[in-house]
C-alpha cells in the first residue's frame, strides 16, 4: 500500500512539473515536503550516514554557484541581476530537491528505490502521452514509435512530437535501460522485469531523445570495453582530464566561426541551437581570464532578450549545459565544478567501494554526454535518477545492509 502511495505521489509531481507550469512554486514545495516525509519515516537499515557524507560535496557545488554569483554581483554588476537572482534561487532549489528526493528514496527504500522511481516515471509518461495516444490510436502509436524517417522530426510535426517528447521523462528512459544492462553484464542478474524493459524501450522510441539514446550506447560500449580490458580504475583516475579536455574542445568549437560553417556545410539540423549559442557567445568570451556572468545569467539574459528583442523566440534554455556552465561560472569556476563532480565525489565513494565509484562515474559519463545538447544539469527528476541508480546498483550488487 505504501509503495502505491509513493508511486502515485511521484507520478503526480512528474506530471505536474511538465503541465502545471502556473503552479511551479506550489509543485516544488509539495515535492520538498514529500521528500522530507520520506526521510522522517525512513527504515532503520537506510544508508543515511553514507548519504550524509555525500551531501557535503553537493553543498560545495551549491556554495560555488552562490558564492560566485555574489562575487559577480558585487564586482561586476549586471543589468539582468533583478531577473538573474530569482532564477538562480529557483535553479538551485531544483538541484536541491533532486538531491533531497534521492536522499529520501534511498533512506526509505534502500536498493528498492530504483524500482519505485522507474515505475513512477513510466506511470507519469503514460499519463502525459494520453492525448497523443487518443490522437493516433494504438496502431498509429506503434507506427509513430518505429518511424525513423526525417519526417518524424519535421517542423510540421512539431505539435505531435511535443505530445510524446515530454522532455525530462524521455531523457531518463535510456538511463534506466543502461542501468539494467550494465547490472546484467556485471552480475548476470536483472534489475527490471521483461515487461518493464519493453515499456522502457517503447517509450524511448516514442520520446526519441536522440542525445540520451546516443549517451546510453556510448556509455555502455565504454563500460564493456573498460571492464574487459581491466581499465575501470584507469577510467576513475583519468576521466576528469578527459572531461575537461572534451568540454573545452566543445566550447572552443562553439565560439569559433567554424561551428556555423560546419553546420551549413553538412546541412545538420540543430533545431535552432546555433542561434541560441551565437546569442550567448556574442556577449561573452572564451579565455583563461574569463570570470563568468554568474549562476543563472544565461536564463536571465535569454528571458530579457526574448521579451525585448525576441532573438531567442521565447526559448529560455540554452540546450548545452557545458557551454552554460562555462559562461556562468567562468574558466576557473568551471574547472572547480568538474573537479568536485569527477574527482572529489568518486574519491569519496571509492573509500566505501571501488565498484560504487565506477558506477557513479559511468552514469556521470552518460550525463556529461547529454550536457552537450541539453539542460539536464538543472532537471531535478533527471538528477534524482542519476544519484539513485549507482547507489541502488551498489547496494543491490553487494546485498549490503547499512545501519544508521
Compressed to H and E, one letter per element, the order equals: HHHHHHHHHHHHHHHHH
Radius of gyration: 21 Å
For the secondary structure, the number of strands is 0
**Mean pLDDT score:** 87
Quote the distance from N terminus to C terminus.
25 Å
**Unreliable segments (pLDDT under 50, ≥5 consecutive)?**
399-404
Helix share, percent: over 70%
Number of helices: 17
- Main beta-sheet strand count, sense and barrel state: none
Fraction in beta strands = under 5%
Total number of domains: 2
Structural class: mainly alpha
Shape: globular
Secondary-structure topology with pairs:
Layout: H1 2-19, H2 24-40, H3 48-75, H4 81-109, H5 113-128, H6 130-145, H7 158-165, H8 167-187, H9 194-207, H10 210-228, H11 232-255, H12 258-266, H13 273-281, H14 297-308, H15 321-352, H16 354-371, H17 380-398
Helix pairs in contact: 1-2, 1-5, 2-4, 3-4, 3-15, 4-14, 4-17, 5-8, 8-9, 8-10, 8-17, 10-16, 11-15, 11-16, 15-16, 16-17
Fill in the keyword field for this structure:
mainly alpha, single chain, 2 domains, disordered C terminus, 404 residues, 17 helices
Structural summary, described in words:
This protein folds into two domains: 2-128 and 167-191 and 204-398, no CATH class; 130-165, no CATH class. The protein is globular. The protein starts with a helix and ends in a 6-residue tail after the last helix. Helix 3 (48-75) packs antiparallel against helix 4 (81-109) and helix 11 packs antiparallel against helix 15 (321-352). It has helices at 2-19, 24-40, 48-75, 81-109, 113-128, 130-145, 158-165, 167-187, 194-207, 210-228, 232-255, 258-266, 273-281, 297-308, 321-352, 354-371, 380-398. It is mainly alpha-helical. The longest helix has 32 residues, at 321-352.
Amino acid at each position: 500500500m505504501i509503495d502505491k502511495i509513493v508511486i502515485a505521489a511521484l507520478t503526480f509531481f512528474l506530471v505536474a512539473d511538465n503541465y502545471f507550469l502556473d503552479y511551479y512554486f506550489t509543485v516544488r514545495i509539495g515535492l520538498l515536503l514529500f521528500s522530507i516525509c520520506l526521510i522522517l519515516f525512513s527504515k532503520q537499515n537506510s544508508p543515511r550516514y553514507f548519504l550524509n557524507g555525500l551531501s557535503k560535496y553537493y553543498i560545495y557545488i551549491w556554495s560555488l554557484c552562490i558564492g560566485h554569483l555574489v562575487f559577480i554581483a558585487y564586482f561586476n554588476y549586471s543589468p539582468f541581476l533583478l531577473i538573474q537572482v530569482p532564477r538562480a534561487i529557483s535553479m538551485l532549489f531544483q538541484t536541491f530537491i533532486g538531491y533531497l528526493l534521492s536522499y529520501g528514496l534511498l533512506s526509505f527504500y534502500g536498493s528498492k528505490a530504483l524500482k519505485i522511481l522507474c515505475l513512477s516515471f513510466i506511470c507519469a509518461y503514460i499519463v502525459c502521452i494520453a492525448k497523443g495516444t487518443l490522437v493516433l490510436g494504438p496502431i498509429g502509436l506503434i507506427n509513430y514509435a518505429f518511424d525513423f524517417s526525417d519526417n518524424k522530426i519535421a517542423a510540421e510535426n512539431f505539435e505531435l512530437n511535443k505530445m510524446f517528447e515530454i522532455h525530462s521523462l524521455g531523457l531518463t528512459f535510456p538511463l534506466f535501460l543502461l542501468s539494467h544492462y550494465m547490472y546484467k553484464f556485471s552480475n548476470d542478474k536483472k534489475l527490471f522485469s521483461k515487461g518493464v524493459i519493453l515499456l522502457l524501450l517503447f517509450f524511448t522510441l516514442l520520446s526519441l531523445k536522440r542525445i540520451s539514446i546516443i549517451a546510453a550506447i556510448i556509455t555502455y560500449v565504454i563500460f564493456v570495453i573498460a571492464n574487459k580490458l581491466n581499465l575501470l580504475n584507469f577510467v576513475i583516475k583519468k576521466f576528469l582530464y578527459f572531461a575537461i579536455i572534451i568540454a573545452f574542445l566543445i566550447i572552443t568549437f562553439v565560439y569559433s566561426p567554424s561551428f556555423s560553417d560546419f553546420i551549413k556545410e553538412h546541412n545538420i539540423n540543430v533545431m535552432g541551437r546555433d542561434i541560441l549559442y551565437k546569442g550567448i557567445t556574442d556577449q561573452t568570451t572564451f579565455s583563461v581570464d574569463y570570470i563568468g556572468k554568474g549562476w543563472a545569467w544565461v536564463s536571465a539574459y535569454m528571458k530579457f532578450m526574448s521579451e525585448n528583442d525576441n532573438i531567442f523566440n521565447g526559448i529560455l534554455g540554452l540546450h548545452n549545459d557545458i557551454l552554460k556552465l562555462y559562461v556562468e561560472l567562468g574558466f576557473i569556476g568551471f574547472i572547480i565544478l568538474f573537479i568536485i563532480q569527477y574527482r572529489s565525489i568518486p574519491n569519496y565513494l571509492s573509500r566505501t567501494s571501488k565498484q560504487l565509484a565506477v558506477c557513479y562515474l559511468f552514469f556521470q559519463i552518460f550525463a556529461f554526454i547529454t550536457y552537450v545538447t541539453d539542460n539536464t544539469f538543472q532537471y531535478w527528476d533527471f538528477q534524482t535518477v542519476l544519484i539513485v541508480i549507482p547507489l541502488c546498483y551498489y547496494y543491490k550488487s553487494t546485498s549490503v545492509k547499512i545501519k544508521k
